[in-house]
Amino acid sequence: MPDDGLIAIKPEIAAKALVTAERRAAMAEQAATDPDGFWRGEMGRIAWMREPTKIKNTDFTGDVSIKWFEDGELNASVSCLDRHIASGRGDQVAIIWEGDDPASDSKTTYAQLHARVCQLANAMRKLGVKKRDRVCIYLPMIVEAAVAMLACARIGAVHSIVFGGFSPDSLASRIQDSECSLLITADEGRRGGRKVPLKVNADEALKSCPSVRNVIVARNTGTAVAMREGRDHEWAALCDAEPTQCEPERMNAEDPLFILYTSGSTGKPKGVLHTTGGYMVWASFTHELVFDYRPGEIYWCTADVGWVTGHTYIVYGPLANGAATLMFEGVPSWPDNGRFWQVVDKHQVNIFYTAPTAIRALMRDGEGPVKKHKRTSLRILGSVGEPINPEAWLWYYRVVGDERCPIVDTWWQTETGGILISPLPGAVAQKPGSATLPLPGVTPALVDGEGKFLEGATEGNLVITDSWPGQMRTVYGDHPRFVQTYFSTFPGLYFTGDGARRDADGYWWITGRVDDVINVAGHRMGTAEVESALVAHPKVAEAAVVGMPHELKGQGIYCYVTLNAGEEPSDALRKELVAWVRKEIGPIATPDAIQWAPGLPKTRSGKIMRRILRKIAANETDSLGDTSTLADPTVVQELVENRVG
Ligand code: WTA
């Protein structure tokens, strides 16, 4: 089969699919010609306290204003909990938790989850947390993470989750930016048999976070941690005596639900802000359509709640749809590299959603660890986070899914709130490596460098021409940055930062970022962040960071470092810099290569020519292009000769 050959829709899937090819076409048609009518028809998938009468009110020009369902009122936690209980599903499992240790797991029903959410919500109110206050969540993959998110939603507080792998500094800057008054953390996290010192990190971060008045500490490993009198509270002591009912706050559809920090091409991470009504409709709509979700099915997304995938496809989407969602604390390779499939069999998982980097790592170990487990419960397989190469796609399809399970390669971003381009299992034939076609209501297009629309089979910058309900509304505290980042490169269009190719069948192939964001093992990283971490080291004068191709991680982090006069390069210093960046940002930013650079290729106006640095890092040194505009072209030769790796 050729790499871009079509894999037909499975008749057995199509016969029972929620959305068939005809239905998809009809939906897309209505969403394009009558968006208000289409979304009025879809908005009933979540529970409203007051039904919206206004549907779409969006403008990508000028100041950029995005409003959906703007006169509606709701509470996200009611859509995820109360209404399932009201319809008699309280005893159904909401969260299956699988611990890092294969011997530990738990099940939480909708009724139990509701009770825990209400207790924490009551406790937070007692601590003085009010509607619109920001609450930082720095937790491992334990049930408390979902409880904390929903408890914030219950009282109208805006959660900002920081991935447990981020350093104290990264945590502190995120808390400071949104002035959180409460931090919810745990004693420790667990990953692959190791412990992550969350409370220790949090204490370090809080030294520079005067806005935080209270800290709630969940017990996970049970290790002794310092508790500051008057500030730190044990979760259980605080919540256990609270009533298991809590009046939900009435929220406007456009009230914020959460902030999630993400890396951009410049400066510090920005607080992507999502609001309540549109996001919830989008989470429910996409989760149901893309995964062809049926009540009663067991659904597992392997992401961490610290990333947007965990927000939309572990918590809000599945719970809005009344699903049983699996939360996994561990890693694919521990205790052995068959762990994913062991968990699939143990919990009889029907829908499985993971990242290409995990697939590539497992593929390296061959079929053995997969074939040791049955996997007969699997029905749909999903991929997210980075482009999936056709080899990995085919391995996932043939080896993991036994050619029985359609693969949904889902393209989206923190900013988009949920999936925008993806096959629907019963409606779209797949091509290995292609995210295929947009969902109904999504209007991608390609433009050239000048913003001119490109037609037909071609490649260019990926833009979205009109709004969809799940779109981010602003950058927290910095609307001008929102407009500048997403709507100024190509005025009137949402610019994704990605490049894409559209083939003769109209299928979309995401080619990767066209800005200075790199994607390391599915984690977004701004090269500027790594550069500023490096130059913060006392011996470093200047640094330039680019992505390089990496067999497992998709992209690796390649750093060019110029030392201060008088400093000598050494292996010890190289190790020190790697450790330094890990400490400054977190282990996900670990440099893969550091090259000593006596000089960097700069234009006469002093701008670093990253194009050349990317080529050298990728070892494509025979296609460096024009270097004649450089202030000093000889630095390039020096860099080529001393390339590392
Ligand atoms: C990349 C993760 C190709 C893309 C949900 C995007 C993908 C960035 C895919 C967003 C995919 C995500 N195929 N590339 N299926 N999914 N990406 O914000 O470059 O962490 O811009 O959101 O990941 O990363 P983020």
From TrEMBL:
HAMAP family cross-referenced by the UniProt entry: Ac_CoA_synth
Record's keyword terms, sorted: Acetylation, ATP-binding, Ligase, Magnesium, Membrane, Metal-binding, Nucleotide-binding, Transmembrane, Transmembrane helix
Function as written in the Swiss-Prot or TrEMBL entry: Catalyzes the conversion of acetate into acetyl-CoA (AcCoA), an essential intermediate at the junction of anabolic and catabolic pathways. AcsA undergoes a two-step reaction. In the first half reaction, AcsA combines acetate with ATP to form acetyl-adenylate (AcAMP) intermediate. In the second half reaction, it can then transfer the acetyl group from AcAMP to the sulfhydryl group of CoA, forming the product AcCoA.
Boundaries of every Acetyl-coenzyme A synthetase N-terminal domain copy: 26-80
Annotated Pfam families: ACAS_N, AMP-binding, AMP-binding_C
Cofactor dependency: Mg(2+)
Catalytic activity: acetate + ATP + CoA = acetyl-CoA + AMP + diphosphate
Modification note: Acetylated. Deacetylation by the SIR2-homolog deacetylase activates the enzyme.
Xref: CDD domains: ACS (cd05966)
List of residues binding CoA: 191-194, 309, 582
Species annotation: Roseococcus suduntuyensis
GO cellular component: cytosol
Residues with the N6-acetyllysine modification: 607
Recorded superkingdom: Bacteria
Annotated residues for binding of ATP: 385-387, 409-414, 498, 513, 524
EC numbers on record: 6.2.1.1
Family of this protein: Belongs to the ATP-dependent AMP-binding enzyme family.
Protein name in UniProt: Acetyl-coenzyme A synthetase
Domain AMP-dependent synthetase/ligase: 86-466
Residues noted as binding Mg(2+) in the record, renumbered to the chain: 535, 537, 540
Transmembrane segments: 135-157
One Gene Ontology term of the molecular function aspect: AMP binding
Positions of the AMP-binding enzyme C-terminal domain: 529-607
NCBIfam families: Ac_CoA_lig_AcsA (TIGR02188), PRK00174.1 (NF001208)
One example of a Gene Ontology biological process annotation: acetyl-CoA biosynthetic process from acetate
